[in-house]
Specification:
This protein is mainly α. It has eight helices and four strands; from the N terminus they run ααααββααβααβ.
Length: 272
């Protein structure tokens, strides 16, 4: 018997397969959220007068901020969402938190000069992060343009930490605090090159002596963490100007990064 029924064509045969909806990678964003919590914890501790714990919170946020990008690259979970989340977390932990801690600890005793210094630091942190997000061509990836915001936060909170450990009241060192806050803030928005350590590859094999040096470094830090860490960041905070002077004297290019005011594309460039 002749079959008059035509085969029914699959209605979805010629449809373009839909891409699975984009989700949020949990692992790197959990690290970013932990860094954000460090900054929030620092602000809360400053409000409660525990400035030593506030400084510790910022330093913990700094460690976590250095991990989230590496975790994303190692697990191949980079995303535009993660980059923007990281930038916002940095603004809280290394912009707003150090400014508020410094103000509560010492700067509010200086009246208008105190809050102006705190605002200058906070504004410079925002400008530095925004400028970093719209970088279009990195001339030399070994250097940052201006002091990185975590290092600037370490200068401000490291000074508070060491002074607290030495039982100094904030009011007695208010002017040095103002100078450090202004220096850290304004250095963030300069074109001074600071070494980025991006050419250090953790996956490469190293001599046994390198591991011994790492162990010695950890031991030295544990002698008195506030003093050692603050000293290291003071050296780093000055190193950019030394590099700038040397490159200037040799006639080399001093600006490491060219910038643009165009909006960043979806790939993002944030890794501060």
């Amino acid at each position: 018997m002749h079959n008059d029924i035509e085969p029914v064509e699959d209605a979805g045969a010629h449809r373009t397969p839909r891409k699975p909806p984009k989700g949020i990678y949990i692992l790197p964003n959990m690290v970013t959220l932990a860094a954000l919590f460090g900054g929030f914890y620092a602000i809360v501790m400053a409000m409660n007068g525990r400035f030593d714990l506030a400084a510790t919170g910022v330093f913990c946020a700094m460690v976590l901020d250095g991990l989230d990008g590496r975790v994303a690259r190692m697990t191949n979970t980079q995303s535009a969402f993660g980059e923007q989340m990281d930038s916002l977390s940095d603004m809280v932990s290394f912009g707003a938190a150090p400014a508020l801690i410094a103000y509560e600890w010492a700067l509010k005793g200086l009246g208008r000069w105190g809050w102006i210094a705190a605002f200058v630091y906070c504004a410079c942190a925002a400008l530095r992060l925004a400028r970093f997000n719209v970088n279009t061509a990195v001339v030399d990836k070994r250097f940052f343009q201006g002091l990185p915001s975590p290092a600037a936060a370490a200068l401000v909170t490291g000074f508070i930490w060491i002074m607290t450990e030495l039982d100094y009241e904030g009011a007695s060192v208010a002017w040095p605090m103002l100078v450090i806050a202004m220096y850290a803030g304004l250095t963030m928005v300069t074109n001074v090159p600071f070494y980025s350590f991006k050419d250090v590859h953790m996956k490469k094999s190293v001599p046994f002596a390198a591991i011994v040096l790492v162990a010695l470094g950890i031991a030295v830090v544990n002698i008195h963490p506030p003093t050692v860490l603050f000293g290291l960041f003071v050296i780093y905070g000055l190193s950019g100007y030394v590099v700038y002077a040397v490159r200037k004297a040799k006639g080399q290019q001093t600006s490491m990064i060219s910038t643009s005011t165009k909006e960043p594309d979806e790939r993002g460039l944030h890794n501060d």
